Amino acid sequence: MKTPHLLLAMLAACLLLAGCGTRRAPGVEGDPERGKVALAQYGCRSCHVIPGVTGSETMVGRPLDGLAQRKFIAGSLPNNQANLVRWIRNPQAIDPESAMPAMGVTQNDALDISAYLLTLE
Amino acid sequence: MSLSRPALVVKTAVLTLLAAGVVAAAVGFTVLRSGWYDIGATTQHLSFVYKLLEQGMQYSVRHHAMEVVTPPLGQAEALRGAALYRDNCAQCHGGPGVATAAHGMSMQPVPGPLVDAARRWRPRELYWITRHGIKMSGMPAWEYHLDEAETWAIVAFINRMQDMSARDYRTLTATPSVRAGDQREAR
Question: How open is the CA angle A96-A99-A103, to the nearest 5 degrees?
């Protein structure tokens, strides 16, 4: 009688996961679900391949999968939420020659975007 | 049953296919007529819908651009194209270090950068897309707004974008505006 129990447990796990949506990484502010939509609405997906956001294959910017695992962003900044927000909002303030444009992302939207990116293990 | 075995097999196969066709058509019509597929641009396409539309677009462009003859595209054309690109294309496609206007960001599909366009498209295909536009994508046709030489100048510029840094792009597009309309009136 082990199999039905296992199946039930798996079903329960699926329902739980579905109910939660994208879970925020620990110690991170912002709403990752909103961030996922914001990534599309600021055109980020046009240069970056991002898991969970539909779009064309592109290698203009670096793919953002596994971002939570990276030690550095933009070549030199330690990867944490505060630095991600700074970089997303104004790349030229960190690297004046960066080809990544400032897209006019608001502080709140940058928080949500970084919250989503930090769920990408 | 007076039917022979092979005839029975054929009859069953035909009826099964017909039934499957009717069911598929009914499901398709239901999905269409119900309006369940969200046409809003704040939700994403289903991944397979996006891929299907994109693939079809690429095949169509390749097919239709086959007859286009590419003229020589040199430095002069590319330079002329820089100002035309800045005035007519950068609003939706941006450039190295330069953001699109707001309306270029939130379109579905997103117009996307053209710095890698030369890797994806031949010059004749870029010309064809610019001249004829792409249905249901937001890409307008420029046939009635830019002349031949202007369209090829833009292609020449886009073709060189892959080698441009943000600084190169700034320098090249810092030339005075050439208004297509003004030139046309003078002709």
Answer: 90
- A99: in domain: yes
Write the ipTM.
0.84
Rounded to whole angstroms, the Cα distance separating B132 from B139 reads 9
State the Cα–Cα distance between residues B93 and B169, nearest whole angstrom: 13
B123 HSE (CA, 13 A, CB side): 18
A48 in a domain, yes or no?
A: yes
pLDDT for residue B3: 73
Q: Write down the mean pLDDT value for chain A.
A: 88
d(CA B81, CA B118): 15
Contacts of A46 in chain B (CB under 8 A): 110-113
pTM metric for this prediction: 0.84
How many angstroms away from the CA of B29 is the closest CA of chain A? 25
- Indicate which CATH number applies to the domain containing B105: 1.10.760.10
Which structural domain, as residue segments, surrounds residue B23?
1-37
- The shortest CB-CB distance from B110 to any of A37, A45, A59 is to A45
Domains of chain B: total: 2
Tell whether B112 is covered by a domain. Answer: yes
Q: How many CB pairs under 8 A join A and B?
A: 68
Q: Are A41 and B105 in contact (CB under 8 A)?
A: yes
